[in-house]
Amino acid sequence: MAKKQSSSKTSTLASKVLSGKKTPTKKEIKSLAASVLSQDETKGQRKKR
Fold it and tell me: Alpha-carbon distance 41 to 49, whole Å?
Protein backbone atom coordinates (compact mmCIF):
# COMPACT_ATOMS: atom_id res chain seq x y z
CA MET A 1 0.00 0.00 0.00
CA ALA A 2 1.30 3.44 -0.92
CA LYS A 3 2.07 5.87 1.87
CA LYS A 4 -0.33 8.78 2.01
CA GLN A 5 1.12 12.25 2.43
CA SER A 6 -0.33 15.68 3.14
CA SER A 7 0.07 18.41 0.56
CA SER A 8 2.62 21.13 1.15
CA LYS A 9 -0.19 23.63 1.69
CA THR A 10 -1.84 21.44 4.34
CA SER A 11 1.46 20.79 6.11
CA THR A 12 2.28 24.50 6.22
CA LEU A 13 -1.18 25.30 7.57
CA ALA A 14 -0.86 22.63 10.27
CA SER A 15 2.55 23.98 11.28
CA LYS A 16 1.27 27.55 11.60
CA VAL A 17 -1.79 26.48 13.60
CA LEU A 18 0.20 24.27 15.97
CA SER A 19 2.81 26.97 16.57
CA GLY A 20 0.11 29.52 17.37
CA LYS A 21 0.96 31.79 14.44
CA LYS A 22 -2.46 31.31 12.83
CA THR A 23 -6.03 30.78 13.95
CA PRO A 24 -7.68 28.44 11.44
CA THR A 25 -11.03 29.11 9.77
CA LYS A 26 -13.76 26.46 9.86
CA LYS A 27 -12.85 25.49 6.30
CA GLU A 28 -9.18 25.07 7.25
CA ILE A 29 -10.11 22.99 10.31
CA LYS A 30 -12.15 20.66 8.12
CA SER A 31 -9.28 20.41 5.64
CA LEU A 32 -6.79 19.48 8.36
CA ALA A 33 -9.17 16.93 9.88
CA ALA A 34 -9.85 15.36 6.48
CA SER A 35 -6.12 15.09 5.82
CA VAL A 36 -5.49 13.33 9.12
CA LEU A 37 -8.43 10.95 8.72
CA SER A 38 -7.48 10.05 5.15
CA GLN A 39 -4.02 9.00 6.33
CA ASP A 40 -5.35 6.69 9.07
CA GLU A 41 -4.16 3.24 8.04
CA THR A 42 -5.81 1.47 10.98
CA LYS A 43 -9.43 2.18 10.01
CA GLY A 44 -11.63 -0.63 11.24
CA GLN A 45 -8.74 -2.42 12.94
CA ARG A 46 -9.00 -0.95 16.43
CA LYS A 47 -10.28 -3.00 19.32
CA LYS A 48 -13.37 -1.73 21.08
CA ARG A 49 -12.90 -0.63 24.67
Answer: 19
